């Protein structure tokens, strides 16, 4: 049996909260997930370390996080994120809004079918920079190629074995080549939020999330 000391050595180090995460009472992991969602749609801008996100993509980024806003919420959020109607939002107000949604989300709440469809198209289309009229727009399964492309978009160096494990975790071990169906993707969203599952969560042996 492992001693307390040896068990502690094998444990993953706890992520340290940034000042921004502390201000909004979210964990370092939650902040990382928000930053990754923002980065998928971000565009460079002088003076903005994280870039800016076009306001037209704010809802899609929040859907990817499993935090879909209602129409009324989105209107209010955009007025906060982009008060001057410049057409883009910076990182800090985006994080603040996502933190509010995290705190307000009731246990057991989940996305509706339209939100699942939108998120599935987002993942199989690899974000706003993909070809919306191409084959991926009508993809029926989420594949290893989709995950590789998303990782490249985010400039994340992710081992292919980890991406394969993510697919196997979602489809119950049915095989990497089979991909992830929309029904399986929906189950992932309802359990944990699409972004929280697919974007680089720590995995233990045999692809089980830890």
UniProtKB/TrEMBL annotation:
GO CC annotation, single: myosin II complex
Compositionally biased tracts (Basic and acidic residues): 12-28
InterPro entries tied to this protein: CALM/Myosin/TropC-like (IPR050230), EF-hand-dom_pair (IPR011992)
Chain positions covered by the region annotation Disordered: 1-28
This protein's record includes keyword Zinc: no
Domain of life: Eukaryota
Swiss-Prot/TrEMBL keywords: Calcium, Repeat
Protein name: Calmodulin
Protein source organism: Xylaria bambusicola
């Amino acid at each position: 049996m492992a001693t307390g000391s040896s068990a502690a050595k094998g444990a993953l180090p706890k992520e340290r909260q940034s000042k921004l995460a502390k201000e909004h009472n979210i964990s370092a992991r939650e902040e990382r997930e928000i930053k990754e969602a923002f980065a998928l749609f971000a565009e460079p801008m002088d003076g903005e370390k994280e870039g800016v996100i076009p306001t037209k993509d704010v809802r899609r980024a929040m859907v990817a996080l499993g935090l879909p806003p209602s129409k009324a919420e989105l209107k209010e959020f955009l007025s906060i994120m982009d008060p001057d109607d410049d057409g883009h939002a910076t990182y800090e107000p985006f994080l603040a809004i996502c933190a509010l949604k995290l705190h307000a989300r009731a246990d057991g709440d989940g996305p509706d079918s339209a939100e699942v469809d939108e998120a599935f198209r987002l993942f199989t289309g690899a974000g706003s920079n993909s070809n919306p009229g191409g084959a991926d727009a009508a993809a029926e399964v989420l594949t290893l190629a989709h995950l590789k492309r998303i990782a490249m978009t985010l400039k994340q160096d992710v081992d292919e074995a980890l991406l394969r494990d993510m697919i196997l975790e979602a489809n119950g071990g049915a095989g990497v080549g089979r991909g992830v169906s929309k029904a399986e993707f929906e189950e992932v969203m309802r359990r944990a939020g699409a972004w929280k599952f697919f974007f680089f969560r720590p995995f233990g042996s045999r692809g089980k999330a830890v």
